[in-house]
Specification:
Blueprint lengths: L21 H4 L16 E10 L2 E8 L4 E8 L10 H16 L9 E6 L3 E5 L5 E2 H8 L4 H20 L12 E3 L5 E3 L28 H4 L6 H17 L9 H10 L7 H4 L4 H9 L11 H11 L2 E2 L27 H17 L8 E4 L7 E5 L2 H5 L5 E6 L4 E6 L3 E2 L8 E6 L3 E3 L2 E4 L4 E10 L9 E10 L5 E3 L1 E2 L2 E4 L21 H5 L10 E2 L5 E6 L2 E6 L4 E8 L1 E6 L3
Parallel strand pairs: 9-16
Antiparallel strand pairs: 1-2, 2-3, 3-5, 4-5, 6-7, 7-8, 10-11, 11-12, 12-27, 13-15, 13-26, 14-25, 15-18, 16-17, 18-19, 19-20, 19-22, 21-26, 23-24, 24-25
Length: 564
């Protein structure tokens, strides 16, 4: 994979961009057709960018009356002229296989046009790449990372079931729509590296920072290679830096083949220690040691993220008073008569049942952080059927993962409306389940406005108020508000590389028949969170069972019997 002798080895960041000829840059978009594309079906609206394989344009399909993304593939930039025709044929076969993939998290291929220049016509996705998000925010919270990676994993599992290997999973190929829905781009494009000699440009198929060891060796790949790349993306989302870095491609590849990633700083990131085991398995050098499917990886990540860890000392920790023997107290020493009277008084109280619950003990349980206390009844309390109980303090910052029970829309919701949601993951504090999955939370819409009353952008804000525990008790709580706002109707940002979900999505099913003029294009409906275009603007909507993730704002306590 070395460059030609008379050219310096390219830097890793240089491998994802091509120099666009001045003639292309000088074109005034708006009326011309894309160079090399026969006929007048597609009219150029804007050049959205350039990647390793060519340019991407926003264009209008004059026949179907819709905007699309058109990718002009420049295979000649990567192969010798003598191999170009063979590579074109293999690329076309791979693209045709990838085009048959139909999944909510995969950019849909509408058409493949083979001329002296190859074009792929795709749906137009409005949003930002994960690469752009990470450049802006450095790293992401665990719950947000899980929500995004779960969708990427679902796309990869679907592709692998159809024997399609992506080969270039990286943040730049992951689009995030305004509602949080993910679309994976460029399926099947990167497979043309097998058996292809590199030209003097020093180009490399795939992005070196995210390559699997077997891909770096030029070996035959399967879906586990993509899962290694997904592990690299996961590592970057959680830590803010790539697992394998270097000044040149060769340095990066040597690290991928021989070194382990830099250990995660769990104290600095606040991540549970269990996340380390997930990353280690995802980034195993041996494919047989990795997760078999993306779903397994995400399940391991979710399980690791269910434990809330608090480092000692903890502010606001409950202090357990030391127990002092009455007989050894200096106050009573040498006063046997008073001790006798006190003993008789205690006996009388026990006889009447007044001290039935007394005589117990309280100790720090869980992992010793002070957030979990175990209360053990005394001898008489146990005789009366009392059981040991755990008092758990759920700290601020704990994530509550839920599924909403009934649809909500900014078009019809009003401030004060109530909603219910069911927990989809148990809440663990210091290894102890404070709130199991399957319990009901209640909340309220604190603010809402339809598009027509808010400059074309509907919005609503949700907050939780209480949880109904399995024993029937109701515990009040407070969460940070969850703000849902539709994107602007018109976007000038050119972060559009793949499209609005297909018109004709079953909006009625999404919203359960609730009133409203929902009939336009739907973004992210399959993820449960949708942005719906109406004649008044854009509304944000939550479908039945849509996932929610809210953060505890103020610590609250729950009490439960001590059990498994």
């Amino acid at each position: 994979m070395a460059a030609a002798d008379d050219e310096p080895e390219p830097k890793p960041e240089e491998l994802t961009e091509l120099t666009i000829p001045d003639a292309v840059k000088a074109q005034a978009p708006g009326n011309e057709t894309i160079g090399g594309l026969p006929g007048e079906r597609y009219r150029t609206l804007a050049r959205l960018g350039a990647g390793a394989f060519g340019e991407v344009y926003r264009a209008h399909d004059n026949d179907l009356g819709r905007d699309v993304a058109v990718k002009r593939i420049r295979l000649e930039a990567f192969v010798e002229p003598s191999q170009l025709e063979d590579v074109k044929q293999r690329f076309l076969r791979e693209a045709q296989v990838a085009a048959r993939l139909r999944h909510a998290n995969i950019v849909t291929t509408h058409d493949i046009i083979k001329t002296p220049v190859t074009f792929i016509v795709m749906e137009l996705v409005e949003g930002r790449t994960l690469q752009a998000v990470l450049q802006e925010r450095d790293r992401l919270p665990l719950d947000e990372t899980i929500a995004l990676m779960a969708q990427v994993a679902a796309a990869l599992d679907h592709a692998h079931a159809s024997q399609v290997v992506h080969r270039d999973v990286k943040p730049a190929n992951i689009m995030i729509e305004p509602g949080g829905h993910v679309k994976v781009m460029d399926f099947g494009i990167a497979k043309i590296e097998t058996g292809t000699n590199l030209t003097s440009t020093g180009a490399i198929m795939g992005t070196p920072n995210y390559m699997s060891p077997e891909q770096a060796k030029g070996m035959k790949l399967d879906g586990r290679s993509d899962l290694f790349s997904l592990g690299c993306v996961l590592y970057e989302c959680l830590t803010g830096h790539k697992p394998f870095q270097g000044e040149s491609v060769s340095v990066i590849l040597v690290k991928i083949l021989t070194e382990e990633p830099t250990p995660v700083d769990f104290a600095a990131t606040g991540l549970p220690l269990e996340v380390g085991a997930v990353l280690k398995r995802a980034l195993a050098k041996d494919p047989a040691a990795r997760y078999v499917t993306g779903a397994q990886l995400i399940e391991g990540l979710r399980t690791a993220g269910q434990t809330t860890r608090v480092s000692a000392p903890t502010a606001g920790r409950v202090a357990v008073p030391a127990r002092t023997s009455l007989a050894r107290s200096p106050h009573w020493r040498g006063r046997p008569a008073l001790l006798l009277v006190a003993g008789l008084l205690v006996a009388a109280l026990l006889a009447t049942g007044t001290l039935a619950g007394f005589g117990g003990s309280t100790r720090v349980a869980g992992e010793g952080g002070g957030l979990v206390l175990e209360e053990t009844p005394g001898l008489l309390g146990r005789a009366m059927g009392q059981e040991p109980r755990l008092r758990v303090s759920v700290p601020p910052g704990t994530r509550l993962r839920l599924a909403i029970e009934a649809p909500l829309s900014s078009e019809t919701a009003r401030a004060g409306d109530r909603f219910s949601a069911e927990s989809t993951s148990p809440v663990k504090v210091e290894g102890v389940v404070a709130i199991p999955s399957g319990v009901r939370f209640s909340g309220r819409v604190t603010e809402a406005a339809p598009a027509e009353d808010s400059e074309g952008r509907g919005h609503m804000t949700l907050a939780l108020e209480a949880v109904q525990l399995p024993d029937g008790s109701r515990v009040s709580l407070s969460t940070n508000p969850l703000v849902l706002r539709a994107p602007a109707t018109k976007k000038k940002d050119a972060g559009i590389v793949g499209g609005l979900a297909a018109a004709g999505a079953v909006v009625g099913g999404l919203l359960g028949g609730k009133g409203g003029a929902f009939g336009g294009a739907v973004v992210g409906g399959a993820a449960g969170v949708a942005v719906v275009t109406t004649d008044k603007g854009r509304e944000v909507a939550l479908g039945s069972r849509a996932p929610l993730s809210l953060e505890v704002a103020v610590a609250f306590g729950v009490s439960r019997t001590k059990g498994p």
